[in-house]
């Protein structure tokens, strides 16, 4: 699949057609809501109190709706007017702003209790005009964001980097802006389910761990290695058993008779040996 | 859809605009009042974040003068349901649909159309 950020700048790519797609397509909606749920989990807002959150790249407000459901108040920013138009039509609860995040925010210090952003950050890595410098825009974005977040709080970005260099660049810029934290990878061994979250923290906090296929958290102690080894062995055993059964099941008398019948139809009765009580019998070992 | 709660948090983010960049002044506004469910706990927790003077000044400029000039000193009034309801109405239920916001410092105008303020800057106005 081609990367949308290489096709056109966001405000053009997310035009009327793409905006419509986002609301009509239930698959996109499902993926978006799943990622929003996970981002909220990583945000670790703790108690069930309503918070004031920032949704970066809110688009048509799909993730905003989930924030609404949880009773949070939110402000959404997006660079695509078409997507925002859809958000207004859908009557989402949050305040919407047409804003280029690479130009920075103008919110007062300590405004937000947290920030989420779904599939947005990769757009910042592209230079869409001669005046754009990704590094500069990212730095501006992170510094102003750091400024408007409360201490302690978190910002969680789900994003699709195209290389490790990009991840490195983002994390260094974030660190320079004063953030702590790092990258959380969910399902690192699956090509389809693998999702990356940049989990940034204001104030000192610990980085949460990613999800893995078995629903178990990855920890880099030796215990997990042993666990995996056991599971791998069990899987190997199971597949071996299956193979043995299949091999026995596939070349038996029934199978041979079936094949012979087939060749009789194709080549004629004369060409194929007739069936007897010895057909498909195992030979004694002395042969 | 600019509510006063968000407006109270918004400053001008034009390059080198550091003086008088808050609050942005509403001009030629069209308002819409949409009743919203009140979460008074949230409002109570939000009070310390508010710039009271700016809030009252802005509210008056758009013809809403139910709030007192000074933030009530004593805790009882501050946390009374009547006061919080009033605050909820001003912060959450008044939406600015059309008009513009102007920065007193640099004069930058942020137009608002169908409830969405346009915060985009020209390339030379972007801070570094």
TrEMBL record, chain A:
One Pfam match: WBS_methylT
Domain 18S rRNA (guanine(1575)-N(7))-methyltransferase Bud23 C-terminal: 200-285
Bias (Basic and acidic residues): 266-278
Membrane spanning stretches: none
Region Disordered, annotated ranges: 211-246, 266-287
Gene Ontology biological-process annotations: rRNA (guanine-N7)-methylation
UniProt cross-references to Gene3D superfamilies, sorted A to Z: Vaccinia Virus protein VP39 (3.40.50.150)
Gene Ontology cellular component terms for the protein in this record: cytoplasm; nucleolus
Keywords: Cytoplasm, Methyltransferase, Nucleus, S-adenosyl-L-methionine, Transferase
Residues spanning the signal sequence: none
Subcellular location: Cytoplasm; Nucleus
GO molecular function: rRNA (guanine) methyltransferase activity
CDD domains: AdoMet_MTases
Domain annotation Methyltransferase type: ranges: 54-131
Keyword Ribonucleoprotein: no
Biased composition, class Basic residues, residue ranges: 228-246
Similarity remark: Belongs to the class I-like SAM-binding methyltransferase superfamily. BUD23/WBSCR22 family.
PANTHER family: 18S RRNA (GUANINE-N(7))-METHYLTRANSFERASE-RELATED, METHYLTRANSFERASE-RELATED
Protein name, per record: Uncharacterized protein
Organism of origin: Filobasidium floriforme
Automatic annotation (TrEMBL), chain B:
Pfam families: Trm112p
GO-annotated molecular function: protein heterodimerization activity
Domain of life (superkingdom): Eukaryota
InterPro entries: Trm112, Trm112-like
GO biological process entries: rRNA (guanine-N7)-methylation; tRNA methylation
Assembly and oligomerization: Interacts with TRM9.
UniProt protein name: Multifunctional methyltransferase subunit TRM112
Source organism: Filobasidium floriforme
